[in-house]
Amino acid sequence: MSEALLKIDDLHVSFATYAGKVQAVRGVDLSLEKGEIVAVVGESGCGKSVTAQTIIRLNPSPPCSIDGGSILFQGTDLTSLPIKEIRKLRGSKIGMIFQDPMTSLDPTKQVGTQIIEAIRRHEKVSKKEAFARSVEMLELVGISNPVERMKQYPHEFSGGMRQRAMIAMALVCHPELLIADEPTTALDVTIQAQIVDLLLSLREKLGTSILIITHDMGVVADIADRVTIMYAGMVVESGTVEEIFYNPRHPYTWGLLKSIPKPGVNGKERLIPIDGTPPDLLDPPVGCPFADRCDYAMAVCREQMPETTQLSDTHQTRCWLRHQLAPKIKNPITGRED
Amino acid sequence: MVKYTLKRLLMAVVTLWVIITMTFVLMHAIPGNPFADEKRIQPEIMANLNAKYGLDKPLIEQYGIYMSNLVRGDFGVSLKYQNRTVNSLIAQGFPVSMTLGAAACLIGIGIGILFGIIAGINRGRLPDYAVIILSILGVSVPSFVFASIFQYIFGAKLQWAPVAGWGAPVFLILPTLALGLRMIAYIARMMRTSMLDVLSQDYIKTARAKGLTEGQVIRRHTIRNAITPIITVAGVMVAGTLVGSFVIENIFNIPGMGKYLVNAVKDSDYTVILGMTAFYAMILVAVTFVVDILYVIVDPRVKLD
Amino acid sequence: MKELTQELFLPVGKNPDNANRITRPTTTYFKDAWRRLKQNKIAISSLILLALILLMAIFAPLFSQYDYSSQDMFAVNQWPSAEHWFGTDSLGRDLFVRCWSGAQVSLFIAFVSTMVNVLIGIVYGGISGYFGGRVDMVMMRLVEIIYSVPDLLWVILLMVVMGPGLHTIIIAISITGWGSMARIVRGQVLQLKQSEYVMAARTLGAGGGRIIRKHLIPNTMGPIIIELTFSIPSAIFTEATLSYLSLGVPVPLASWGTLANEGARVLQLMPYQILFPALLLSLTMLGFNLLGDGLRDALDPKLRR
After folding, report:
1. Residue C78 located in a structural domain
2. Residue B204, pLDDT score
3. Are residues A297 and C14, on separate chains, in Cβ contact within 8 Å?
4. Direct distance between the N- and C-terminal alpha carbons of chain C, in angstroms, rounded to an integer
5. Which residue in chain C has the smallest CA separation from A325?
6. Which end of chain C is more exposed for a tag (fewer CB within 10 A), N or C?
7. Assigned domain for C207 exists
8. Which CATH number do you get for residue C172?
9. Domain-wise residue ranges, chain A
10. Membrane spanning segments where (chain B) (predicted)?
C-alpha cells in the first residue's frame, strides 16, 4: 500500500464549555488514498463534523483544542503546522463544502467574485484568466449560462445551484482532497441524488479524493468506496462499502442499516429505530459507549472499552462480541451465526 | 427599482402628513386657544395673522390654509415678534445646526464603526474591553454631563478651546466632541454586535475554508455585511443631529435650530414650534427615504416589491 | 485491568434508563437565567449599586437634618464639608438632601412612566401581533411614523400642550416611549403564533390558557424584562434632559436634571454643584445599562452552551 493522502491517527479533540470539557473526538483513526471516496457516518454529535473541520483547523480555538494524535496530509502533520501554513493549504490542496448552501455564500458578493477570490488567493493569475477558469468550473459542475451566473448574487440561485457553486469554488484550484461536510443534508431528495452524481463525476474527471461526512446510509451506498462508522467520538467500525453493507459486525452498524427504509422489498419489513440517545461526552462512560443502547450488551461492555479487532485488511470493528469468550449470536443483517 | 422608490416616496409623504397633522392638532389642543388670545398677542400681529392664516376662521379651514402654505414653502410667522418668520429662523439656524451636526456625524460614525470593527475582531481581548467600557460610558453618561466636563477641563482650566459661542471653527471643537462621543458609543456598540453576528455566519467559515487570511475575511466578507444593519440607525442619527441638538446648542449657546426651538417653547410661541417641527419632520423623513434607497444598493437581498 | 472471565460475557441486554440519561442538570428557563446572571459579576454589582441608590433615595432625605427646599442665606455656595456633604447651592440649600430627593423625583418619574410604557406596549404589540394581517400592518406603520420623529421632540411638544409639572412629565414620557416595547411584543407574538412547538402543543390538546402560561409568557418575558431595563435609563435620560432645559419639573422640586442645570450655571467657579447630581445620574444610567446587558446575556437561551 502506498502512502495515504490523508491519515488521521488517534485524534483527540475537546471543547471547553461552562460545564466542563466535552470530549468530542476520542481517538479517531481514518485514512484516505488518492482518488478514494471515504464516508464518515454517525448520528448528530458523534464527532464526525468536528473531525472533518479539525483537518483544516476550522474550529475556533479556544474553545476547541486538539488534545492528541496526528493528521498526516501528504506526509505533513497538520495538527502542529502553523495556522499560516494551514491557510495556504485551505482551498488550494484541501477544499471544503458545508451543509447549508443557503447560508454558506456571502449574500452581498457576486458568485463569480467569490470563486475568483479563491483562485487569486492561491495562484498569481490575471483577473481575466481567473474569470475564465471560474466559468469553466461552473460549467463543469453543471451550471448552465455560467457567464451570466457569475454576475449574479447567491439569492438568485436555487439551493441545488448554490451547492454546485460551492463545489465549484472548493475545487477551482484542483485540490487533492475535498471535504464535504453533510453536503446533501439540507437539500431535496432529487437534488441530493444530483449532487452525489456530480461528486462522483468530478472524482472521475479531476481525480479528487473525497471525504464525505453524512448520516444518510443511502448516500453512503451510492458514493463511498470505504466507510467509517463513528459513535460518541470514536470509530466503532470501518471497512469497504461491501463489508459494511453486506457483512457488518458491530451492533451499532446493524442498527443503522435496519433504520434505512427499503421500499418495495417486503411489505412486512419495518423500520427499526435505535432506542435512546448517545451518551453525553462531557462525562463519557468507561465501557463501550453504545452498551446502554445495545441489544447484545454483556457485563464486560459496561466495564471496559473494547479493543479494535482486525477482521480483514480493510475491515475492523471495536466490539466485545468479537472476543473469543463472547457468545455466538445471529447477525441480524447477514443471518449468519458469528 | 422605480416601483420601490415610488412606494417609499409615497410612504414618506404619508409619514410627513401624519406628523404635521398630529403636531397641528396638538398645538390647537392647548387649553384656552392661545392663537386667538388677544391679551398676549399684540394687535398688529394678530391682524396680520388673521389676514394671512385665517386664525379667526374655523379650525378645519385654518388647517387647510396652513397645509397649503407649507406646500408652498411657507412655515409660518411668530406669534410673539413682529416681522419674524419661521423661514427666517430656519435660514439662520439650519446652516449652523447642520455644520455642527455634520462634524459630529463624521467623527461619530467614522470612529464608531472603526471601534466596533476593532472590538469585534478582538473579541474577549483588551481592545474589545476598552471599546465596551467606552461605549457603555458613552451611552450612560448624558451628553450635557460630557459637555460640562469638557467645558470645565478643556475650556475653563486648560483653555484649549472656547467654552461657548459660535462664529469660528474653534467653537466647533467642544460641542462636536460632546455630541460625537455619544454617537461613537452607540455606533461602536452596534457595530461590535453586528460584527460578532456576521463572524458566526456560515459564509465566513466558507471564506476561511478558501484559505483567506483573517484580514481578507474581515475586509472582504465581514465589514460590509456588518455595516448593513448600522445604516438605518446611522441614518436616523444623522437626521436628528443635522437639525440640531436641543441640549448641546443650549449649553454651548449656539444659534442653531435646537436653540430656537427651545426658546420658542419657553416663549410659548406656538406657530414657531409648529413650523419648526414641520421642518424637522421634513428633514427626518427625507433622510429616512435616502437611507431606504441606500439600503437596496448596499444589500442586494432587499426585495424590491 | 480486570481479567476477562466467562461470566463477563453473559448477555445483559440494553439499559434504556441509562441510555436516556441526561448528564447536564435540567433547569427551568428562569432558574437557568438566574444562574447565569449570578455568574456575571458586573451585572450583580450593578444590581447592588442600583439597590443602594434606591435605598439612599428613600431614606437619606428622611434622616437628614436639612430639607430639600429650605434656604439658608448664611450658608450659600459652600464647598462640600462635614456639615454639608455635597456642599450647598446659591440659595444655601443642602445639596446632599437635594441630590437624594432629586433621585426620588427622577426615579419616580422613570419607574412610573416605564411601567405605563410597558403596559401600553404589551397591549398594543399584543393586539397587533395577535390579529396580524391588515390590522398589524396599519398599527405597525403608525408606530413607524411616530418614531420617525425623536422621542424628545414629542415629549417637548406634549409638555408645551400640557404645561410643566410632575404629572405632565410622567404622562408625556409614558405616551411617547412605548414603541420599541410594542415592536418586541408584536414580534414575539407573531413568531409564537407560527412556531411549530405551539402547533405541537395545540395538537397535543393544550388549551389557550396553557399555551399562554407555558409558552407565551416564558418566551415573551425575557425580551420584555430586557427592554424594561433599557427603557428605565432612557426615561431617566429624557426627564433629565427636559429638566436640564428648564422644561421639566417646576421649582422648588428638583430632579437630577434640574440640579445639573443649576450646577452648570456656576460650573467654572463651583464645579462640585454639577458634579454630584451628574455623577449620581450617570451611575444610575450605567447601572441600568450594565444590568440590561447582563440580563440580555442571561435570558437569551440561544447563548446557553
Report:
1. no
2. 93
3. yes
4. 36
5. C6
6. N
7. yes
8. 1.10.3720.10
9. 248-338
10. 9-30, 94-117, 129-154, 166-188, 226-252, 272-298
Domain count, chain C: 1
Determine the Cα–Cα distance for residues C89 and C92; give it in Å rounded to an integer: 5
To test the contact with chain B by mutation, choose from A106, A167, A171, A185 the residue with the greatest count of B C-beta atoms within 10 A, namely A106
The minimum CA-CA distance between C14 and chain A, rounded to whole Å, is 5
Task: Flag whether C66 is in a domain.
Answer: no
If you measure CA to CA, which chain B residue comes closest to A121? B212
- Among C153, C241, C293, the residue with its CB nearest the CB of B142 is C241
Going by pLDDT thresholds of 50, 70 and 90, the confidence category of residue A283 is confident
Q: Note down the domain range covering C138.
A: 32-58+94-303
Per-residue model confidence as pLDDT tens digits over A73-107: 998 898 888 989 999 999 899 999 998 888 899 98
Residues A90, B208: C-beta atoms closer than 8 Å:
yes
- How far is the C-alpha of A215 from the C-alpha of B57, rounded, in Å? 79
List the one residue out of B111, B104, B113 whose CA is nearest residue B230: B113
B182 half-sphere exposure, CB direction, 13 A CA radius: 22
CA separation for the pair B118, B108 (Å, rounded): 15
Instruction: Count, in order, helices (H) and strands (E) of chain B.
Output: 13, 0
- Given this model, what pLDDT does residue A1 score? 46
Chunked into runs of 10 residues, chain C (305 residues) has average pLDDT values of: 72 70 62 80 90 88 75 73 75 80 89 92 88 88 84 86 86 88 88 76 72 73 85 89 84 82 79 85 90 82 47
Helix-, strand-, coil-residue percentages of chain B, each rounded to 5: 75, 0, 25
Q: Assess if residue C50 is contained within a domain.
A: yes
Check residues C164 and A138 and name the one with the higher pLDDT: A138
- A140-157 mean pLDDT: 90
How far is it, in rounded angstroms, from Cα C84 to Cα C99?
12
ipTM of the complex: 0.86
Which residue of A14, A17, A18 is the best one to mutate when testing the C interface, meaning the one whose CB has the most C CBs within 10 A? A18
Q: Which of A58, A87, A211 should be substituted to probe chain B, the one whose Cβ sees the most B Cβ atoms within 10 Å?
A: A87
B134–chain A nearest CA distance, Å: 26
Q: Poorest-confidence range of B86-100, B123-137, C202-216? A: C202-216
Tell me the chain A residues in contact with residue B208 when contact means C-beta distances shorter than 8 Å.
58, 87, 90
How many whole angstroms separate alpha carbon A329 and alpha carbon A318?
Answer: 16
Question: SS3 sequence, B77-110?
Answer: ECCCCCCCEHHHHHHHHHHHHHHHHHHHHHHHHH
- Asked if A108's CB is within 8 angstroms of B298's CB, the reply is yes
Strands A64-73 and A6-17, sheet pairing: antiparallel
Half-sphere exposure of C213 (CA within 13 A, CB side): 5
| B106: Cβ contacts below 8 Å, ≥ 6 apart | none
Query: Which chains would you list as touching A if contact means 3+ CB atom pairs under 8 Å?
Result: B, C
Chain A residue with the nearest C-alpha to that of B200: A60
pLDDT(B224) > 80 = yes
Q: To 10 degrees, what angle do helices A127-140 and A111-122 make?
A: 120
**A58–B203 C-beta distance less than 8 A:** no
Sheet holding A76-77, edge to edge: A20-32, A6-17, A64-73, A76-77
Nearest residue, CB atoms, C4 vs list A280, A292, A325: A325
Grid cell digits, residue C127? 393586539
Report how far residue C285's alpha carbon sits from residue C262's, in angstroms, rounded to the nearest whole number.
Answer: 20
C242: nearest Cα among B248, B246, B30, B27 = B246
pLDDT over threshold 70, residue A13: yes
Is the previous residue joined to C252 through a cis bond, with omega within 30 degrees of 0? yes
Rounded-to-10 torsion of CA B202, B207, B209, B213: -130
The whole model's pTM is what?
0.82
Give the Cβ contact number of residue C93 at 10 Å.
22
The three grid cell numbers given for residue B270, joined into one nine-digit string: 406656538
Gyration radius of chain B over CA positions: 23
Task: Give CA A128 to chain center in angstroms.
Answer: 35
